[in-house]
Amino acid sequence: MKLARSDRGSQTRELLLATAERLFAEYGVEGVSNRQVSEAAGQSNNFAVGYHVGSKEDLVVAIVRPHAASIERRCGEMVAQLPDSPGLRDWVSCLVRPAVEHLASLGVPSWYARFIAQATTHPTFRRLVVGEAFASRSFQRCHEAMFRLVPLLPEEVRRERDDMGRLMLVHICAERERALQEGTASPHSTWESTATGLVDALVGLWLAPVTARW
Amino acid sequence: MKLARSDRGSQTRELLLATAERLFAEYGVEGVSNRQVSEAAGQSNNFAVGYHVGSKEDLVVAIVRPHAASIERRCGEMVAQLPDSPGLRDWVSCLVRPAVEHLASLGVPSWYARFIAQATTHPTFRRLVVGEAFASRSFQRCHEAMFRLVPLLPEEVRRERDDMGRLMLVHICAERERALQEGTASPHSTWESTATGLVDALVGLWLAPVTARW
DNA sequence: CAGAGACTAAGTCATACGCCTTAAAAGTCA
DNA sequence: TGACTTTTAAGGCGTATGACTTAGTCTCTG
Question: pTM score > 0.85 for this model?
Answer without folding.
Answer: yes
